[in-house]
Amino acid sequence: MYNNEPIFLQPVLQERIWGGQKLRTEYDYEIPSDKTGEAWVISAHPHGPSKIMNGALAGQTLADAWYEHKEIFNKAEDEQGEYPLLVKILDAADDLSVQVHPDDEFARTVENVPYGKTECWYVLSAEEGAELVLGHNAKTQEEFDQMIDRGEWDKLLRGVKVKAGDFVYVPSGTIHAIGKGIVILETQQSSDITYRLYDYDRTDVAGNKRELHLERSTQVTTIPHQDAPVEQMEKVNGDLIEKKLVEEQYFSVYHWQLNGQATCEMTADFLQVSVVEGRAALMIDGKSFDLKKGTHLILPHSVTTYSLEGNAEFIVSHE
Ligand code: ZN
User: Fold this and answer.
1) pLDDT class of 204 with cuts at 50, 70, 90
2) Architecture of domain 7-220 in CATH?
3) What predicted TM-score, i.e. pTM, was given to this entire model?
4) How many Å lie between the centroid of ligand 1 and the Cα of residue 253?
């Protein structure tokens, strides 16, 4: 049986043409180049699995732990399937391409992967006036196709201004793009299937445009766009303010603000915890663990009670 220590994870850094340096300057990660776009911070996905940094499982990946120690996640030993969630930090030094993701059924039947991709974003920082794309303005399939044929992207795409602390829920089938100057923490289904609809007609140094996936994008896009209402709730526990950002089919995500001390009970099968600001101590059975901005961990099911002390902000999630 796995003991009740938290599982600290090593981020996997990914270069992207739209990436920047904030994953080093803000989060102190060793980035591979000045165009580093993504840190996969809690990941069991084969395209970038996180390594465990401490305890009995040190050196193994989160995927190894998922397959071999089901008790950590409160799953039956014969439970099938892949680790369900993926948490990333994204630094958009430039606009990302406009894209859309399939749902589970499409992902399974067309792409032969276990999960589609519903995602959500907590905005960690945003430059003045920063904007992202969320949804579109076409009322019918015909209108949608027509606007694309005519290249009427400004008319089709919906822009939304954001600032630090905003939360954006992006169900599969929603057209979206993170804009220049925005850093987000993304909680999503563990999937890497992306259909690119539009890339602002940008070309690389050789004059080539990036590949688009117009047909697939059109197949999976929800038309007309539906705004997904999110109901947020706040709970105060000691000196901890727990704000529920979203609770839906695939995940629940919370923002925790700690200013002092709080004792917490585990209410989920396991918890994904990311420290996005400040510093705190995590106490479990008389043992203390140091948490700081940029730390990511999983609290296993065996942890029934734990306490936190310090001044910090967290994004916490579970299935
Ligand atoms: Zn996406």
Assistant:
1) confident
2) Sandwich (2.60)
3) 0.96
4) 17
